[in-house]
């Protein structure tokens, strides 16, 4: 399965015999079959009919509309999973604080594991930053027992925040100095690498929300990230262990010179990737999307197993009560 990115002003999309036809100024300029698509990303002045949106939804293809200069995402979800029981169980479990805390601990442990594994690999392959990465690795490893000892979601978020600060200090050592990266900043990002991280996190978050919806979950009801108006909290939950994969992708784009400083522009509104850079980025993201989606699917399969286990236990308890006879 693959992604389709459309970032071209004035293009018109049409449905024709199971394919998307592209027209510009009335002339046909391309055709893409719908069958291999899993996501469609639209940005800019793009027009398409309701029939095409309906066909994409019917085929399980989620549509992400990136609007405005910063590309704020709006999701058009595909046909949902038919089993509402899973969503009911999810909502009930969202009020179970011990369950939510355990889910949060597992997610942050996996995030920390990926960060440590990646930094260990970078340290072995780049002697110039060996000291900085060794220092960051020691700091990250010190957070392992603190995750297990966290007694509440608030204390766990404190551990996560502390680990993130150490992580980005190590990441600063491997990002080229020309990009002026000095740690994570956002809303708006103020340097090219942070702009790249924000864009990748945004796309990945949208992919997770669409996949959760298709798997029968409500993306807005989280366990680690609690309810917040307008936020897909469960998608935010599953994004955490996948962030290191996004970071690796972003750094690879810079190191392989797929993207360079000139592809970005900085104003008072922040640092943004320009049109030429977005074209390069979308092509690279499309090539890498299978790796990212594999990670998404693994996280959703794990979450499904956790919820199903609780559901099965609850069903057993109900059956036990039904079998009990009161002889009083």
TrEMBL record:
Q: Which Gene3D superfamilies match?
A: CRISPR-associated endonuclease Cas1, C-terminal domain, CRISPR-associated endonuclease Cas1, N-terminal domain
Q: Which GO terms describe its molecular function?
A: DNA binding; endonuclease activity; hydrolase activity; metal ion binding
**What are its E.C. numbers?**
3.1.-.-
Q: Which residues bind Mn(2+)?
A: 160, 225, 240
User: Mind listing the UniProt keywords for this protein, alphabetically?
Assistant: Antiviral defense, DNA-binding, Endonuclease, Hydrolase, Magnesium, Manganese, Metal-binding, Nuclease
Source organism, top-level taxon: Bacteria
The cofactors required by this protein are:
Mg(2+); Mn(2+)
Pfam families reported for this sequence: Cas_Cas1
Which Gene Ontology biological process is one annotated for this entry?
Answer: defense response to virus
* Summary of subunit composition and partner proteins: Homodimer, forms a heterotetramer with a Cas2 homodimer.
The task this protein performs is described as: CRISPR (clustered regularly interspaced short palindromic repeat), is an adaptive immune system that provides protection against mobile genetic elements (viruses, transposable elements and conjugative plasmids). CRISPR clusters contain spacers, sequences complementary to antecedent mobile elements, and target invading nucleic acids. CRISPR clusters are transcribed and processed into CRISPR RNA (crRNA). Acts as a dsDNA endonuclease. Involved in the integration of spacer DNA into the CRISPR cassette.
Q: Which family does it belong to?
A: Belongs to the CRISPR-associated endonuclease Cas1 family.
The identity of this protein, by name, is CRISPR-associated endonuclease Cas1
Q: Which organism is it from?
A: Nitrosomonas mobilis
Taxonomic lineage is: Bacteria, Pseudomonadati, Pseudomonadota, Betaproteobacteria, Nitrosomonadales
